Amino acid sequence: MKREKVLGVDFGGVISDRVADNSDTSFFAGRFLETPMVDGAMDALFRLVNGPFEGRVHVISKAGPKIQERTRLWMNHHQFTDRTGISEANVHFCRERRDKAPICKRLAVTHFVDDRLDVLGYLETVPVKLLFCARIGDTRDHPAPLPTGITRVIGWAEAEAALTS
To answer: What is the per-residue DSSP string for the chain?
Structure first.
């Protein structure tokens, strides 16, 4: 029997953008609601929720209590649920990056998108792992070539194509 596709997506750097212009809009600063979303994230997630993943899309993010609250406020401010179809019940938090692995196992995640290579390394039960770069040149500490089983994607157009192929 074929396993149902379940998508897990990181939040910071994959849905909400990392601010590179020195403006004070990061989630650690006072103007966190102004933190922009990654180009194409909302539309791609909407299509994935309503297409191949049939509602089985989860946001899985490492955050302490303060950043969890800010993440939920940001999602509300940007009408995240309405714009993506991802319900609040499908937003999960953990305190350590490695703790995304048991969440993925519990949710039977088959595909995961994260901007951190170390996180993808923990996800032994996830068959499809995408290393997300928001834009060309955004490779930070990513080695080339990548470890087996991990595919680098640049932007949401590439991520969506990889997730629907």
So the answer is: -PPPP-EEE-SBTTTBPPP-S--S-STTSTTGGGPPBPTTHHHHHHHHHHTTTTT-EEEEEE--HHHHHHHHHHHHHTTHHHHH---GGGEEEESSGGGHHHHHHHHT--EEEES-HHHHHH-TT-SEEEEEESSTT--TT--SSPPTTEEEEEHHHHHHHHHH-
pLDDT digits (tens, 9 = 90+) for 107-165: 999 999 999 999 999 999 999 999 999 766 565 556 668 889 999 999 999 999 999 98
Count: domains in the chain: 1
- Predicted TM-score of the model (pTM): 0.91
Residue 100 sits in which domain range? 7-164
| Residue tagged 């792992």 (tokens) | 129
Angle between helices 41-50 and 155-164 (to 10 degrees): 10
